[in-house]
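Slack export, channel: ligand-projects

TW: morning all. Re-posting the request from yesterday since it got buried. We need the structure predicted with the small molecule present, not the apo form. The ligand is pyridoxal-5'-phosphate; the SMILES is in the block with the sequence. No rush, but it would help planning for next week.
GE: picking it up
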Amino acid sequence: MLYKRSSELFVEALKYIPGGVNSPVRAFKSVGGTPIFIKEAKGAYMFDEDDKRYIDYINSWGPMILGHAYQPVVDAVIEKTKKGTSFGAPTEIETEIAKLAVSMVPNIDKIRFVNSGTEACMSAVRLARGYTKREKIIKFRGCYHGHSDSFLIAAGSGLSTFGMPSSPGVTKGTAQDTLLANYNDMNSVKELFQANKNEIAAIIIEPVAGNMGCVPPVNNFLQELRSICDENNTLLIFDEVMTGFRLAKGGAQELFNVTADIVCFGKVIGGGLPVGAFAARNEIMDYLAPIGPVYQAGTLSGNPLAMAAGLAMLQAINSDVELFNRLEEKTAYLEVGIRKVLTANNKTFTVNRVGSMISIFFYENAVENYEDASKADTPEFKKFFHDLLERGIYIAPSSYETWFITDALSYEDLDETIKVIDEVTK
Ligand SMILES: Cc1ncc(COP(=O)(O)O)c(C=O)c1O
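GE: finished. pasting the full token output, ligand included:
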């Protein structure tokens, strides 16, 4: 029986962990069925507890850009572990990774490490509020910036999947300081600035959205946001938790040639260990404790194992001049293949892609914002997901999630994936 051991493990997990998972989207709730439990992974493949192999298009939701169990990362973590796992005091490796990150990313002088993307975005907003002495922020419908209260207002992915516009437990007071605009819609942003003069501390945005499926910015949206922020002394925060070190060495700032005031990181920067970070120019970062008034801290922030993994990952990315070309070529190859077979099979679809982020929407028109994304055919996606899974192709269990392409994928893997997509959509 398929997924036998996974099903047994899930029954056991349900007894002790809410919903059997430690992060909701893993539960397969939006696609039905029960989650597969992973035993191990190497390169482009994951193996479940029933020893079934999958070509992985989630890649731990982004971090594994060079494949699972990437040897330099594994070696770095093993070496560090032997010397102690946490000290609560500064270590040299924190400066090493900070220096490297600052050299790779445009327009940042200093970086502070935290433990997750949520923490990075939450701290970036506090810093922006403290720096500007204003309280409101603008976020976009369908963008997800972690599970901190201010962001659980029309957030994407897990929340969209469950049809919850927001979460109980988020107070009205918090919600009223988060203003909502529509992705790729400058008018909705302008209206908020007009109605909230001198009150908006920051705009926070996924420069390429990945939490309503992959949705790229269009019509110079990012440039226009930069201008309106400049005109209003508002800070522009790029949440590059997905895009950072993935779309280019310098992330979306480099790819689109737009600078943000604060940049948030997660996923790739930790090489698969729990790491987040936020970064900015000196005048903003020096507003943080211990030199500035804005408080932010963490017992395990800058943890040596996490820093070792992150440093090995960033070094690998920084020294491989062909990496982003290869990722672009592989993902473009997949895109062309998918378009070809879905067209031949008379499917109604839209494919969005930026670099190594790609999504299929079972929807006929362009997908440029959350409203478009939510019109995609959900039953069709559910069937697609399960058919792929059964045939050993592991994509995100939600139509509101981007796929993440890893450099570990071979062209044979991509051909196999296209072949399977052809078979299941015939
Ligand atoms: C764009 C974006 N920001 C923030 C986060 C939150 O990161 P974490 O799950 O590490 O808290 C995510 C997580 O998927 C994300 O996609």
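GE: first-pass observations. Residues 323-344 form the longest helix (22 residues). The longest strand covers residues 200-205.
TW: perfect, thank you
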